[in-house]
């Protein structure tokens, strides 16, 4: 159904994809249908046999989360030895020519490690850095327990200031701010470019925006995509529908995920206080870091 609908790639995620006994059967079928594959895994279950099977799939990439160095990573996962097992899995995949990307989440327990972790990934492990997520979301059931891991103002400022100061206006972060989003743009790519299928066959715009009456066992994906009321309403929403945000001076520094907004507020278009907080710090840190960078250049 996804191939008939014009889908180009599939990202397999979890939980942990390798806990499914039928994962490789599913993935092989997807490759047979000529989908490009992105695999999200913690790599702890990647042994030589699994690495060989993954390599035989010729995935576009395998993305692995690293939450810090050994002590911090194991603290986040709550599994002793998980860092070493993840490192072992990454190396097995890398040695077989699989494109592996490392990524992380900025938290109050790892904020002082992220920059060194990025260097470690490139120089010591020899794989590429995918990036860092700044916005931590609640659990899918709405439980806000993970939000206790969000960085405070000083941590976030220090992280951003260091990230921008090394490259100034050429920093990718700064370049991303130079394009102010137009008010008539969609809220995000969910329901336009992306969709999500749960293990139970539920077809949604993304992993966090979930609808009812969307069971693929009873409806075709293309029909749900085109005709489902929820998809239609989501596609009608635009940046301008975030009424509280339209005139905000920090809008170009603001990252808002509608799915996270929905989990926290119950609305796709409400103002998210965490995004407001981060945007203000983005503006201050980038402004000061750029001027410091320019001052250094002028003294040379």
Concise overview:
The chain has eleven helices and seven strands. It is α/β, with parallel strands linked by helices and 300 residues long. The strands form two sheets. It has a five-stranded parallel β-sheet with strand order 1-2-3-4-5, with helices on one face. A two-stranded antiparallel ribbon has the order 6-7.
Question: Could you characterize the architecture of this molecule?
Answer:
The strands form 2 sheets. The chain has a 5-stranded parallel beta sheet, with helices on one face. A two-stranded antiparallel ribbon has the order 6-7. α6 packs parallel to α11. The model has no long low-confidence stretch (mean pLDDT 91). 40% of the residues lie in helices and 10% in strands. It has helices at 23-32, 48-57, 70-77, 82-94, 114-125, 153-165, 172-177, 221-227, 229-236, 258-265, 273-298; strands at residues 9-12, 36-41, 61-65, 100-105, 128-133, 196-197, 203-204. α5 (114-125) links the parallel β4 and β5 (128-133). It is α/β, with parallel strands linked by helices and 300 residues long. It is globular, with a radius of gyration of 21 Å.
Protein topology:
Layout: E1 9-12, H1 23-32, E2 36-41, H2 48-57, E3 61-65, H3 70-77, H4 82-94, E4 100-105, H5 114-125, E5 128-133, H6 153-165, H7 172-177, E6 196-197, E7 203-204, H8 221-227, H9 229-236, H10 258-265, H11 273-298
Parallel strand pairs: 1-2, 2-3, 3-4, 4-5
Antiparallel strand pairs: 6-7
Helix pairs in contact: 6-11
């Amino acid at each position: 159904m996804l191939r008939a609908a014009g889908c180009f790639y599939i990202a397999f995620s979890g939980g942990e994809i390798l806990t499914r006994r039928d994962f490789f059967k599913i993935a092989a079928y997807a490759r047979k249908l000529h989908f490009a594959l992105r695999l999200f895994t913690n790599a702890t279950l990647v042994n030589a046999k699994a690495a060989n099977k993954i390599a035989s799939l010729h995935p576009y990439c395998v993305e692995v989360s690293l939450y810090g160095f050994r002590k911090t990573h194991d603290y986040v996962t709550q599994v002793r030895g998980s860092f070493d097992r993840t490192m072992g899995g990454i190396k097995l995949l890398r040695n077989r020519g699989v494109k592996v990307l490392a990524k992380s989440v900025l938290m109050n327990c790892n904020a002082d490690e992220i920059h060194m972790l990025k260097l470690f990934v490139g120089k010591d492990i020899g794989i590429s850095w995918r990036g860092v997520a700044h916005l931590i979301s609640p659990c899918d059931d709405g439980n806000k327990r993970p939000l206790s891991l969000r960085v405070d103002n000083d941590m976030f400022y220090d992280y951003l200031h260091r990230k921008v100061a090394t490259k100034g206006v050429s920093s990718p972060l700064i370049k991303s701010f130079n394009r102010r989003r137009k008010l008539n743009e969609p809220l995000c790519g969910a329901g336009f470019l992306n969709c999500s299928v749960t293990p139970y066959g539920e077809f949604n715009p993304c992993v966090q925006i979930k609808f009812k009456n969307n069971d693929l066992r009873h409806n075709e994906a293309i029909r749900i995509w085109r005709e489902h009321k929820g998809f239609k309403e989501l596609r009608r929403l635009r940046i301008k529908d975030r009424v509280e945000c339209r005139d905000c001076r920090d809008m170009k520094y603001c990252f808002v995920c509608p799915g996270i907004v929905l989990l926290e507020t119950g609305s796709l278009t409400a103002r998210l206080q965490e995004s407001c907080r981060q945007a203000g710090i983005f503006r201050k840190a980038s402004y000061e870091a750029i001027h410091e960078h320019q001052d250094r250049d002028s003294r040379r």
